[in-house]
Amino acid sequence: MEAATRNFRVGLVQMACAPDPNENLEKAVWRIREAAARGAELVCLPELFRTQYFCRIEDPELFALAEPIPGPTTNTLAALARELRISIVAPLFERRAPGLYHNSAAVILPDGAMAGVYRKMHLPHDPLYFEKYYFAPGDTGFRVFQTPCGPIAVLICWDQWFPEAARLATLAGAILILYPTAIGWHPPEKDAEGHAQLDAWRTIQRAHAIANGVFVAAVNRTGREGPPGRDLEFWGSSFLADPFGRVLAQAPASEEATLIAECTPALIEQTRRHWPFLRDRRTDAYQSLLDRWSDRR
Amino acid sequence: MEAATRNFRVGLVQMACAPDPNENLEKAVWRIREAAARGAELVCLPELFRTQYFCRIEDPELFALAEPIPGPTTNTLAALARELRISIVAPLFERRAPGLYHNSAAVILPDGAMAGVYRKMHLPHDPLYFEKYYFAPGDTGFRVFQTPCGPIAVLICWDQWFPEAARLATLAGAILILYPTAIGWHPPEKDAEGHAQLDAWRTIQRAHAIANGVFVAAVNRTGREGPPGRDLEFWGSSFLADPFGRVLAQAPASEEATLIAECTPALIEQTRRHWPFLRDRRTDAYQSLLDRWSDRR
Q: What CATH number did the domain enclosing B247 receive?
């Protein structure tokens, strides 16, 4: 497959999000332009980039932030993709039907067409991350989108803690898994736990690259949001890892960045030939992965 | 379950293996004694500790190294376990029937009884690691053994690259996953790839701890084996990671060590309450994990 062996540059937009959704879209547009000018053919924005991370509270008024796909944001970004001749991954609060909302990502191709939508499959619901209130569980499964850079998968934030998701994206043919993200520190925990949390986050995603022999990119927001005592400090640190888990590029924690990194898909087959995990999976013995716990049967 | 909330010490025996199997058993015995004297209640030996890593070549004469379980080695170690009142994990080249051999690990309890046997499920077969020649694929599945330290799982070496194995051991109730191992560098590759290989190995096992909220221990051999040009330099670096992926203890690369580390099982539930991945697995969407690749259906 020709597309999968051509090198290409990805652009990872790490941004802070303002209260005004229009300001965030404007910033995303200029950062996408910057990424394209620096050679990116595929640009990924952070999770729910149009807004601040509203899931810090549960408030029915906030469903008004949702929009359809296609809709105003994807229309704007489709025009931009067409102009710049690049692919864009746009994570959005999707209004799929009245009363039915998802944490989604639209994949837009260089001709402005929509390759499709991924809807976040694994939803968190924990202090200041009350996502099960807003979002219905995704029903897309772990899809692959055909782009001029090759087949890519988009998973979203909490998905990054589940090896099953990365494996399924790999088996579906992904050469690159993108993780748009909104993860940060609870400031009171940061001193004691912050380093270990960030390290665990980086470690598990690097491990997905290693286990599957794929490129993995995390695209996080940065900045502090919310009132003192109810605030989150998003930890940035967006990165790209190669199929060996080596970090090729890494953004800082507390600054915005347009991170550009090169993917060399030929490295995938080379890595997998030396460490042929896909050859040796015991698919005959994995049935219990479909169980919640071992007491089911 | 009381056993799962009591702290306990594990002993990880990192040893170099001599050509003489008796010498290796003697060394294992005195290192187990040392570990017990330092408070270990559960001691794990490296993969195939009785011999040098014979899978560097394919030679039918070498099947003579195999032994039954129970057999001479487990008899010796059962007596030792009883004397020291500890549990011992003994990885062996198992002769299960004439012509049927496995890469196995016997789990011996403090009364000298056998808790059971794990037979390596994922077998490598790559330059100097020709395991598919010697060993039939394991048929035990990913078991848990009840010990006085709580329920533990034993996986072996190549298993460590498969997130499925660690997940299944966790769902079966393991609080600690032990990985007896024989992994090392091909000396000609070491300068260019050695650091990344060791780092990938540590990273993916730390990630199993994180993804599953369990303790993970790797128990590797050390030393150089084989003639120049066909030799392996085993990279030691045995370690214990906590359910957050933090490395609690780590052995050097090129020296023997009896590594003692404490497991605090209460940390498992604490970690999982804060990062409740087991709550959020999408077991309804994992069916394709049973496929080899996405073209099956």
A: 3.60.110.10
What is residue B198's three-state secondary structure? helix
Query: Which candidate from A122, A196, A244 shows the least CB-CB separation from B246?
Result: A196
Using 50, 70 and 90 to split pLDDT, how confident is the model at B5? confident
Q: How far is residue B203's CA from residue B96's CA, in Å, rounded to a whole number?
A: 34
| CA angle (B191, B196, B200) in 5-degree steps | 150
Three-state DSSP class for B197? Answer: helix
B19 within some domain = yes
A30-40 burial, b at 16+ Cβ within 10 Å, e below that, comes to: ebbbebbeeeb
Cβ-proximal residues to A166 (8 Å cutoff; 6+ apart), any chain: A155, A177, A208, A211, A212, A214, A216
User: pLDDT, tens digit, for every residue of A199-230?
Assistant: 999 999 999 999 999 999 999 999 999 999 99
Catalytic residues of A: 47, 120, 157
Give B238-274 as a DSSP string: -EEE-TT--EEEE--SSS-EEEEEEE-THHHHHHHHH
Strands A114-119 and B40-44, by their bridges, are unpaired
Domain count, chain A: 1
| A 22-81 → B contacts, CB under 8 A | none
Q: State how far residue B48 is from chain A, nearest Cα, in angstroms.
A: 20
Flag whether residue B97 sits within 8 Å of chain A, measured between CB atoms.
no
Q: Over the stretch A135-171, which tens digit does the pLDDT of each residue have?
A: 999 999 999 999 999 999 999 999 999 999 999 999 9
Q: What are phi and psi of A242, to 5 degrees?
A: -90, 175
- Using pLDDT thresholds of 50, 70 and 90, give the confidence band for residue A296: low
* CA gap B53, B40 in Å, rounded: 27
Inside any domain, residue A289: no
Q: How far is CA B90 from CA A59, B104, B106, B122, B147, in A?
A: 57, 8, 5, 18, 14
Predicted model pTM: 0.97
Q: How confident is the model at residue B2 (pLDDT cuts 50, 70, 90)?
A: very low
Q: Is residue B211 part of a domain?
A: yes
Structural domain range at position A134: 8-277
Does the residue B256 lie in any domain?
yes
